[in-house]
Every structure is written in structure tokens, then in C-alpha cells.
Amino acid sequence: MIDAELLQRWGNAPRLNEFAVFFERTASGQGGAPDLALPEIDLGLLDFDLEAAVFADTHRRLWGSFDFHYFASIPYRLEEECRLGPAFLRHALETWARTGRPARIYTLGTGTGCLARTLAVLGSGRVETLCCSPTSANREAFLANRGSPYAHFFLGPFFDLDVGRYEQDETLHRFRGGFDILFEDTTFQMYDAERIRQLEFVYPRITPGGLLVQVQKLAHPDPEQYHARERQKDDLFKSRYFSPVQISDKKAEVLATMSDLQVDVATTTKALGAFFRYSVATWNSGNFYTIVSSNSRTAIIEFVSLLLKPAIPPAFRYDMLPKVWVDTADEPLAPALAWRRAQPMIGLPAHPRLAS
Predict the structure, then answer these.
(1) Where residue 347 falls among pLDDT bands split at 50, 70, 90?
(2) CA gyration radius, the chain
């Protein structure tokens, strides 16, 4: 049970206070946008996979102002989204085929909800999605280009979506049974460093055998290593899109405070191990990681088998992947994990946005 004191602390967190103006301004298009170039996906890093290309094209049509900022800020995060997206969709469609009901996906703290909207569009009624953000401009972007009636938005922080809210809000009734995939995207680190308490809040919303997928920026035991990766991000990636002034301004306005609420791999692993039998790191970009967790060995193995190999230049990757972080089974998990092979498009991409 989450106590009132913890909820009050989350309510006083940077995301809803110090960062609120930054996020509202960026999401409304009044600031924070790349001033040198706009992010474009490199399908070559995804081996011109057909599923990734279809997802990427649909995804790009649904971007809001905040998405331009986000995908220009984290090295190869756009390619990772278009690697994760087809795996989410395939997993959801298999859930629909097995259960006879729409699969339910919750993207927690994902700005305009572009990933959720893309999944709803491609799922065509076989996938129901929910996203949340406390930033009203993100809700406006969502509604302006919703894409599908099966995509839904909750205006507020993740901790406002308690059991009572799902019961009281008619638009949320469809999600009362929980989520087959719960995706948390660099959100916990803006509220608190107590990952166990945050997981305690969201864990009951994951269906038995369901997946928690997280993109997290993690601290490093060696501060020099952490800062070296940050310099690489700024100098070799963000500098393509943002001027030095913009990069410096964001460091001063957001990143310095946010780093205080980041935790390292050991802390993350310990927290995940308190709730899940299995956790696997499936992507790494500097200090950023994608982590997939479940209590179902089969679900973990099958989901990893739906992922292409990480779409990122080797210089930005600091771990051999996939990497098992939590494994409680007698039979080792690692030998059973394998990426899927790309199914390349025939000929060259016809769409100019896909020809990068």
C-alpha cells in the first residue's frame, strides 16, 4: 500500500515542479526544439527490416513537438523505439489471438504518447493503449493527432492512476484488468530514487505473465565513466541537432537535478528482483538502457526473439547484449535468448523519410 507521505513526496518531485515549465514549453513547441536539424531514422541500422520500416513510417506521421526534442536528445533512441515497436505489436497481436480480447499496453510517461498511438493505429482494434503525462501540451498534441480511437490519454502523473481511478473513470474501465505490457520511459528518475516503491505502485497493473519494459538512464559507480558517456552523447550525437547554447541550457535546467534521482545497475537489479523472476537488458546507449522484466520465462524468451539486434553503432554500446540481470530459474536463461533476423525490404525505400 502506497502511503500518503510517499505520494506527497512524489507530488513535490522535480517533474511536477522545477521541470514543469521546461516540459510545457517544449511540448507546446515554444522552446526546446532542435535548432540545427531534425531527427531522421537510420533504417540501415535496422537492416532495412520491413516491420521496422512500416512502424517507423506510421510513427513519424504521429510526432508532436516534444518528440522532435526527445529523439534528438538520446543517441539512437529513435531507432530503438522503432525496434521495440514491432516487437510490442507482435506480442500484443499474439496476446489477442490467444485470449480473444484486445491486448492492453500502457506507456507510462511517454510525452505525446506517440508509441501508444502508433501501436493503436497498427493494431486496428486488437490493441488498446493508454499513455499518461502531467503536461497539458502533450495531451493537446495527442488529441490533435490521435490516430486511433483505441489510443487513450490520462492527464496527470503516473501515481494518480491508482486502483480507484480505473474504477471511477469510465474511459479507463477497459484497463481495469491490467496491462499485458507496461512501458516506463525515463520517468521514475524524475520523481524519486526509490525504485522499489515505484515498482510497488505499478507492479499490480501488470497481468500475470505480462512484461515490464523500461528505458532508464542509469548512474555509474565510476563518475568519470558516466561523464565520459555524457560527453560522447553531447559531442557526437546531440551536436548534430542542437547548438552548444541549447545543450548547455538543458544541462543547467534539467539534467543536473535529474542525475540526483538516477540509480545504478546494482540498485535497479535489486529492485527488479524484488518483483520479477527475470530481467534482461536488451539495449544500451551510453548511460541509457532498455530492460525487459517478467515472471514468465516463456514471455521473456519470446519477446527477446521478436527484437532485432540493437540498432546502434558499437561505439555507443558499453555492454554485450542481451544481458541477463535477474534469473531465478534452475535452467539458465541466457542460452535461450536470441534476436530475430531482419526481413529486409525488396529494393530501395520509396518514401523519402525512410531513405536516410
Answers:
(1) low
(2) 19
216: three-class secondary structure by DSSP: strand
Query: Quick one: average pLDDT of 101-105?
Result: 98
- DSSP secondary structure letters along 294-340: ES-HHHHHHHHTTSPSP-S-GGG--S-SSEEEEE--SS-SGGG--PP
Amino acid (1-letter code) at residue 2:
I
Tell me the C-alpha distance between 288 and 283, whole Å. 8
Alpha helices in 32-174 (DSSP H): 50-60, 65-71, 77-99, 114-123, 136-144, 163-168
Q: Is 105 helix (H, G, I), strand (E, B) or coil?
A: strand
Which residue type is seen at 141?
A: A
Assign 27 to helix, strand or coil.
helix
Cα 194 from chain centre: 19
CA dist., res. 32 & res. 21, Å (int): 11
- The answer to whether residue 356 scores a pLDDT higher than 50 is no
Look at residue 98 and tell me whether its pLDDT is greater than 80.
yes
Total number of residues shown for the chain: 356
Distance in angstroms (rounded) separating the CA atoms of residues 133 and 149: 18
Domains and their CATH numbers in the chain: 4-338 (3.40.50.150)
pLDDT of residue 353: 47
Does the global pTM surpass 0.90?
yes
User: What cell does 192 get?
Assistant: 524519486
- DSSP, collapsed to helix, strand or coil, labels residue 30 as coil
